[in-house]
Structure formats: C-alpha cells, structure tokens
C-alpha cells in the first residue's frame, strides 16, 4: 500500500457535524486540508435546535486543551458558567457544598451543547476549504469503490473522498458500514435508567433561584436530579429515573403521577417549577448507552472519533471532553506519521482505546456515586482525606476526580495511580490501627 499523508489525494469527508466532527473539521482546515462535513440534521444555526439532545456539558481540562489548540478557548469561555463544586440537596431540604478541588483553579465550566456546536461550525466554515452539507444522511458505504452514498431530501448524493472520518455518534452509521463484513467487535449496553430535561427559570428580575456557580445534585437511591447553570440565571435540570418499575418513567405519565413523584422525592423543587407538568409532557425521555468497538479504522481510508467508537454514560462529565481529546490525539498521530495515514490511524487507536475503555467503567461507577454515595459519611470522609493529602502533597497525591477532570493524564494511568494511592492509604491506616492496638495492650499491661 502506498503511503499517503494527511493532505494526499483530495478532500476529506467527515460524517457527522456535531461537536467532534466540527472540531476535527476546524483542526484539519487549519492544516490546509479540504473538508466536507455531512450532517443528517438541519443546520443547528438556523431555527430551533433538535429537542432531547441539549444536556448541558461540563467542559474540563481535556476539552479546554483541545479548544486551546484550535485557538477557540477565548471565544468559548464567555459562553460558559463556572462550577466550583457540587451542591448536594438532601431529602429534608438542607444543602451541602462539595468543592471539586483544593482551589478555584479546579473547576468545571457549564456550557450549552448547541451553542458550542454552532460556534465550532461557524469557525470551521470561515475556512474556504470547508464545506458544510446539512440534511445529508449516510445510507451506505461502498468500501471497494471508496464511495459514500447519502440521502439528501429524497435524492441520492455520492461522494468519493480521499479518506473519511466517522463522527456520527453512538449509533454511528459510518461505524456500521465500515465494519460490515469485517472481523470487528462491537458491544453496546443500555442503562435501565433514562433521562428527562426540565427547566428551572431565572428570577423575574434576573439572577438565579439557586446558587449559580455550582452543579446541583438531588441524590436519591431510586432516582436523582442534576442541574447545570446557564448564563441567564436559569438551570437545565436533568432527571435520571428507571424506565420501568415502580416510580419510573413508565408509571409517571399523568399530571397526578408527576406531582406524586416529585412530592415523594423532590418536594423542595416543586415551588421552583411552576410549569412542571407542562415541561414533563413536552420534553422527551432519553436513553443512556455505552459502547465499545474495535477496530477504529479500516486501511488508510476511514477512522472513527468520539461516540462513534466509545460512547459513555454522562455521569463523569467526560463524553465531550473525551471526544475532543480524540481529535487532538488523531492530529498528534498525523504529526507523528506525516506520510503514513494507516500508521497514524493505528497509533491513534492504540493511544486511545485502552483509556476510553477505562472511562466507560469509571462512568458506570460514578452513576452509583451520584445517586447515593455523595451523602455517605464514609464517602465524605474519604474525600476530605484525599483533599487534605492533595493540599499537603500537591504534586504527589492526586484524587482520582482531579486526575480525570483537571489533567490530561490518560484515563487508564489515572485509575492505576488512584489504586496505588488507595493501597498506600490502606497500608497507613492499617499501620496506625496496629500502633493504637499495640499501645492499648502496653498500657493495659502497665495497669
């Protein structure tokens, strides 16, 4: 196979114009590459955004790094709201603030998915070599002819790009077509819980009804709410609830059932949500999925990024950040293998897949943390110990959450380091316990 570099042979097709696809289009365009972005939905910059897909996002270090690399971070930050930590809302209405880190530098930034997507598309389109094609749904890929076929308002559109990026989300058609007839692994898992978004309006004169610069969590073992702030003082509330069974989406459909659910689990939210029933009826119920697949590429012609190759549950707030980090990693692989695209694809997957598999497991574990552990005495005590050691040894002792959200350390390396720290802490506690027991025995003998 002849070696081919990033610019060889013509234009690149990116299937999917969401966050990952638009960021990668901008990254490639900055390197002088001609890019065609094909998105199945209408242009999100025109008219209303698509419903059910607007979970606010927590931008953290990995995403910030990727946006910095394309020169956009100064445009993105004014669109966000700083979140310095979690406000935990107990069933009795009391609240407790849990900072994300040891100082104000360790924060998250709440940003609207659609607003960020529009910004990325605008900046990508400013490059004359970028063309955006909306209402283009991928129908099939002819791998032998290296041809893509799209449906555009009932008409067939064919393209023969130099190479292709699949950035079309968890239910990626590009991935399906790439792997058709190949020796490929694919696993998907649905969570038994779904989600529904509601709106907590700003105060009539402006400002927020609850603390603005924080992520709010109403943890209940059976269900929980998470709230992301918006710049106008409103909050996007996301309820996570089982699909089936008692007190589920299946049993919460009528106005009386909705009120009963909130009276049982979230009575303190009822006065803040005067349009609760109308919001409930008008907002769709979403599903939560995690996926793993291999390989992420085929030959030197097609490669996957973002949710197309590793969708995760949203409970660690890393979906967007990880997808953006994919774009950075792919561009780094091109830089390391400037004349061998196949080698770049392979290096990219080898550098990322073990760590995104780790992220999937971390995201599952954080689901349990958010719904029940954040109020546990032992969980809070452990967090305090981590924070104290981090202050005492800022370069040596890093809490797992800090490594995931506030560094670009690979996810697998962060988990390994966290487990090593756990062993050290357990050893120290065990040694202290032996000292205490030994002292007690010695004092007993003296008496």
Automatic annotation (TrEMBL):
<keyword id="KW-0560">Oxidoreductase</keyword>
<keyword id="KW-0274">FAD</keyword>
<keyword id="KW-1133">Transmembrane helix</keyword>
<keyword id="KW-0285">Flavoprotein</keyword>
<protein>
    <submittedName>
        <fullName>Kynurenine 3-monooxygenase</fullName>
        <ecNumber>1.14.13.9</ecNumber>
    </submittedName>
</protein>
<keyword id="KW-0503">Monooxygenase</keyword>
<dbReference type="InterPro" id="IPR036188">
    <property type="entry name" value="FAD/NAD-bd_sf"/>
</dbReference>
<dbReference type="Pfam" id="PF01494">
    <property type="entry name" value="FAD_binding_3"/>
</dbReference>
<feature type="domain" description="FAD-binding">
    <location>
        <begin position="12"/>
        <end position="360"/>
    </location>
</feature>
<keyword id="KW-0521">NADP</keyword>
<dbReference type="GO" id="GO:0071949">
    <property type="term" value="F:FAD binding"/>
</dbReference>
<dbReference type="GO" id="GO:0070189">
    <property type="term" value="P:kynurenine metabolic process"/>
</dbReference>
<feature type="transmembrane region" description="Helical">
    <location>
        <begin position="424"/>
        <end position="444"/>
    </location>
</feature>
<dbReference type="InterPro" id="IPR002938">
    <property type="entry name" value="FAD-bd"/>
</dbReference>
<keyword id="KW-0812">Transmembrane</keyword>
<keyword id="KW-0472">Membrane</keyword>
<dbReference type="GO" id="GO:0004502">
    <property type="term" value="F:kynurenine 3-monooxygenase activity"/>
</dbReference>
